[in-house]
């Protein structure tokens, strides 16, 4: 059971004393777009006051102000019965602000962490209230679009919907274009995940996903990388394990991929309740009631004292170059981005330390918005370009300037691969074509004209769901593909130089209801071709090694459980492949056996429920780096599996183990829940943190920079 943390934290030395007519008391949370404060009016009214970061208000782009106004309007529409009452707002102020009722209760995800899955009667009552709340929005032609456990508060009078940061009027395309998937992947509707119109039926799908979580403790489409989640939402059947039997038919109907098959919110509100004389607070479990009481009491206690400015860090013993000093001097220009998620971190807040050793981060070299939202793997360096899948296209940008170079129509990361200098892609067959062979072409097409493919394999099915381009090594392409004539699946090697197939080896095809691409990652290593494949066992992967001259399987490791995101890159050296989950492991490339396992008996820090113990690792110069629970970064000897050093515990943010570290020279970069941290591997101390919500990092040692990939942009930071 999670410990009872304070519902708010101390103001920092940078926080203002007042906003408008409100005196600030404490911090409730902070994200990429702004900060939420506990505040009090002169008349004694306590509010949650949301503000926008100054770096965003100084931008020439006024879109965020329009969003802020729409959020205020949606909050007023929902009212104080099903939402937080709006007391005042000024989207046009120098620092835009919104003052709402301070909701006395935990978020739904925190309530489930406190209690475990909620009782069926409470889930039914919760669903009925939320369906009525959504009906009220829909009657005003507004859709929520981001319904999830962290946007639902449980109070003694009933549940309340919060955070309307991406709500919008039906049919309003001014802020969200077709093809843009905005929201939270695990709780999106299939149409939203496809970038299509999100109508009221989409909110019904999201509400059903929330109720599955409340009833079972897990979402219907699992966890992991956003791209995997979006795939499952669109194509996989929901996992309803643990949901009470009586709720299954209704929730299954709500989770239909066809919006027209789902009930309306009015119908859902009528179908959910069962006869009972117990009111909503009567149904709340004791741990949740105790948390509500704790928050109610905390509001009237003296706020924590404001934190002083951090003490200056003493200069390191080594000489500091003039260029380093000049770079640090311009760091105040650094900025973060992303959609509003103001309350999603309220219960994740960790009391910051009064003295922090983190210095000012460097200014970003460039920051480039993506034409379409991207929820896929890290940027790839291909020749003189930086390439990444971005929603329904693949983009290339100039790594020196961040300017867009070209765009191609490849929407899946498993449909493209590089050999270092050239990018290749699987051509999607025309829907009316008589035959649909596997065809590989170079990207981008010269002069934008359609050219003959460099390789055609007529024996295999070239449709996107039947083929994966795994990787390219020199002039050999490796694929996983289905036979064009039957249901047999093969691992294939083909020469891009001659255009001929080199070998094929029959392998096991996708297991039933596979939630995403079968082969997660493939990588040529010294002994052969290494594959990381989804296992039929839930949340687990299997490693195997194949002879690159014949395709014959040399060994296969039994399924390994993975908590959290699946690896978007394989950490390997000449001897091992490294995996982080419940432990940090090294598997021998020679036979797949475990060389060492690290982590037994180690202090994980305050690891929240559902977090992985060890993050996706990275390896460089004989050292394996990984996030360790809720603590910090650990460095382990790659040969022996013994700890070399551990970064001092992170006390102001939770580390993010779902993002692999990036190593450049004597520095390692990794993500925590608020930004990108830089750690000196010689002193083992953190240097700075740049605010970003990046979900993938790419190291560019030659250019001495690290690229951070967010959903809506990519940015470059200089390295020390």
* Secondary-structure arrangement, i.e. CATH architecture of the largest domain: 7 Propeller
Q: Overall 3D geometry? A: globular
SSE-based structural type: alpha+beta
How many independent structural domains? 2
Do you know the CATH topology of the largest domain? Methylamine Dehydrogenase, Chain H
End-to-end CA span: 41 Å
* Tally of strands: 43
CATH secondary-structure class of the largest domain: Mainly Beta
Strand order of the largest sheet: 1-2-3-4-6-5
Total helix count? 12
Our Rg estimate from Cα atoms comes to 26 Å
Residues in helix, %: 10-25%
Mean pLDDT: 82
What is the subunit arrangement here? single chain
> Describe the biggest sheet?
6 strands, antiparallel
The percent range for strand residues is 25-35%
CATH superfamily annotation of the largest domain? YVTN repeat-like/Quinoprotein amine dehydrogenase
Show unreliable segments.
165-181, 317-356
Task: Please summarize what this structure is.
The protein is of the alpha+beta class. Helices cover 17% and strands 30% of the residues. The protein has a six-stranded antiparallel β-sheet with strand order 1-2-3-4-6-5. Strands 24, 25, 26, 27 and 28 form a five-stranded antiparallel β-sheet that branches.
């Amino acid at each position: 059971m999670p410990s009872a943390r304070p519902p708010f934290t101390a103001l920092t030395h940078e926080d203002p004393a007042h906003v408008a007519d409100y005196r600030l008391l404490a911090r409730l949370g902070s994200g990429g777009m702004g900060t939420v404060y506990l505040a009090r009016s002169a008349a004694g009214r306590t509010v949650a006051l949301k503000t926008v970061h100054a770096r965003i208000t100084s931008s020439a782009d006024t879109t965020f102000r329009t969003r802020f106004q729409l959020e205020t309007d949606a909050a007023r529409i929902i009212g104080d019965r099903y939402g937080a009452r709006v007391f005042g707002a000024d989207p046009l102020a120098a620092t835009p602000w919104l003052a709402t009722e301070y909701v006395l209760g935990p978020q739904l995800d925190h309530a489930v962490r406190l209690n475990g899955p909620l009782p069926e009667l409470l889930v039914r009552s919760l669903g009925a209230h939320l369906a009525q709340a959504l009906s009220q929005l829909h009657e005003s032609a507004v859709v929520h679009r981001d319904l999830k456990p962290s946007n639902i508060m449980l109070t003694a009078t009933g549940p309340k919907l919060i955070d309307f940061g991406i709500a919008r009027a039906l049919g309003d395309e001014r802020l969200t274009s077709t093809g843009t998937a905005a929201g939270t992947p695990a709780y999106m509707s299939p149409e939203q995940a496809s970038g299509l119109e999100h109508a009221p039926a989409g909110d019904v799908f999201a509400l059903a996903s929330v109720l599955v979580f409340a009833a079972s403790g897990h979402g219907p489409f699992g966890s992991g990388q956003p791209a995997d989640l979006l795939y499952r939402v669109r194509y996989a059947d929901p996992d309803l394990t643990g949901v009470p039997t009586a709720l299954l038919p209704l929730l299954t109907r709500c989770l239909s991929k066809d919006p027209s098959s789902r009930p309306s919110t009015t119908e859902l509100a009528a179908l959910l309740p069962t006869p009972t004389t117990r009111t909503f607070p009567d149904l709340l479990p004791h741990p949740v009631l105790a948390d509500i009481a704790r928050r109610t009491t905390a509001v009237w206690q003296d706020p924590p004292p404001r934190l002083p400015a951090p003490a200056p860090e003493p200069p390191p013993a080594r000489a500091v170059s003039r260029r380093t000093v000049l770079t640090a001097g311009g760091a105040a220009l650094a900025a973060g981005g992303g959609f509003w998620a103001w309350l999603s971190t309220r219960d994740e807040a960790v009391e910051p330390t009064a003295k922090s050793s983190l210095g000012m981060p460097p200014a970003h070299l460039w920051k480039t918005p993506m034409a379409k939202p991207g929820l896929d793997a890290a940027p790839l360096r291909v020749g003189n370009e930086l390439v990444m899948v971005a929603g329904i296209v693949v983009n290339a940008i100039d790594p020196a300037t961040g300017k867009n170079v070209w765009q191609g129509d490849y929407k899946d990361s498993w449909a493209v691969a590089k050999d270092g200098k050239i990018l290749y892609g699987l051509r999607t067959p025309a829907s009316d074509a008589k035959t649909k062979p596997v065809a590989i072409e170079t990207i981008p097409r010269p002069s934008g004209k359609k050219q003959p493919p460099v390789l055609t394999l007529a024996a295999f099915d070239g449709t996107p769901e039947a083929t994966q381009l795994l990787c390219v090594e020199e002039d050999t392409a490796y694929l996983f593909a289905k036979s064009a004539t039957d249901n047999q699946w093969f691992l294939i090697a083909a020469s891009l130089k001659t255009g001929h197939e080199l070998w094929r080896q029959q392998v096991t095809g996708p297991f039933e209801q596979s939630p995403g691409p079968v082969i997660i990652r493939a990588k040529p290593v010294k002994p052969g071709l290494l594959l990381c494949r989804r296992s039929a066992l839930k949340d687990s992967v299997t490693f195997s090694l194949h002879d690159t001259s014949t395709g014959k399987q040399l060994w296969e490791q039994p399924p390994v459980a993975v908590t959290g995101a699946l690896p978007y890159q394989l950490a390997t050296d000449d001897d091992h492949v490294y995996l982080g989950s419940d432990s940090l492991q090294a598997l021998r490339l020679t036979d797949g056996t475990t060389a060492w396992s690290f982590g037994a008996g180690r202090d994980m820090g305050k690891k929240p429920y559902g977090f992985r113990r060890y993050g996706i690792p990275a390896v460089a110069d004989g050292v394996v780096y990984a996030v360790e629970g809720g603590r910090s970064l650990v460095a382990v000897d790659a040969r022996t599996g013994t700890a070399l050093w551990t970064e001092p515990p992170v006390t102001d943010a939770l580390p993010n183990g779902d993002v692999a570290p990036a190593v450049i020279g004597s520095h390692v970069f990794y993500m925590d829940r608020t930004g990108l941290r830089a750690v000196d591997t010689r002193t083992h101390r953190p240097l700075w943190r740049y605010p970003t919500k990046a979900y993938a990092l790419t190291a560019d040692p030659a250019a001495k920079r690290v690229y951070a990939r967010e959903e809506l942009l990519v940015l470059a930071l200089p390295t020390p």
